[in-house]
Design goal:
This protein is α+β, with helices and mostly antiparallel strands. 21% of the residues lie in helices and 43% in strands. It starts with a helix and ends with a strand.
C-alpha cells in the first residue's frame, strides 16, 4: 500500500509539474508577444565635430567628421554628407532599423547642445534571423549647410520597429 500511495503521489506531482510547465510556457509566449509590440526603442549617441584635413582658401574646414563609435558620419561645406554603420538584429522575426541624424552647437564634449532641428531619418534596413546589416545614407542636400561654421556636435539615433530586442 505504501508503494501505491507513492506512485499515486508521483502522478499528482507529475500532473502538477506539467501544469506548472504549461503555465510557464504560456507566460513566456505572452511576455515575448508584449515585448514584440514595443514599436520603438531609440538608441541615441552624440559625437563632437572634428575638422577633416581639408581647408578652403580662407583657412576654414571644408569637411566635418563625426565618430559615434559604431557609426561614422561626415558633412561638407558644399552640402554633401554621408553616414554609415552596422546594426545587429536580435531574434528570428524581422525588425526595421532607421538611422536618424541631427547637428547642433554645444559646449566641448557636446554638453548643453542647441540642436538645429529634430533628428531626420537618413537610412533604413529590415533585418531578420539574428543578422547584422548596414545602415548607410548620404546625399548632396545637407539641410544645415548654411550653419556649417556653427556645427560642433551631432547626434545619431537608431529606432527599431517590429520585433526589436
Amino acid at each position: 500500500m505504501a508503494t501505491y500511495q507513492l506512485t499515486r503521489g508521483t502522478r499528482r506531482n507529475g500532473r502538477a509539474g506539467l501544469a506548472i510547465f504549461g503555465l510557464a510556457v504560456l507566460t513566456a509566449v505572452t511576455t515575448t508577444a508584449v515585448a514584440d509590440d514595443a514599436s520603438e526603442a531609440p538608441l541615441g549617441r552624440t559625437a563632437v565635430a572634428r575638422p577633416a584635413a581639408e581647408w578652403n582658401k580662407d583657412g576654414k574646414p571644408v569637411k566635418l567628421e563625426f565618430d559615434f563609435g559604431d557609426f561614422k558620419a561626415w558633412a561638407r561645406r558644399d552640402g554633401s554628407w554621408n553616414a554609415e554603420g552596422t546594426v545587429q538584429h536580435r531574434g528570428l522575426q524581422c525588425g526595421t532599423y532607421t538611422l536618424s541624424l541631427r547637428v547642433g552647437r554645444g559646449n566641448p564634449g557636446c554638453t548643453d547642445v542647441q540642436w538645429f532641428g529634430e533628428p531626420r531619418a537618413v537610412a533604413s534596413v529590415q533585418l531578420c534571423n539574428n543578422a547584422p546589416g548596414p545602415l548607410t545614407g548620404g546625399n548632396n542636400e545637407f539641410r544645415d549647410a548654411a550653419r556649417f561654421d556653427e556645427i560642433s556636435c551631432a547626434e545619431r539615433v537608431i529606432r527599431c520597429t517590429g520585433n526589436c530586442k
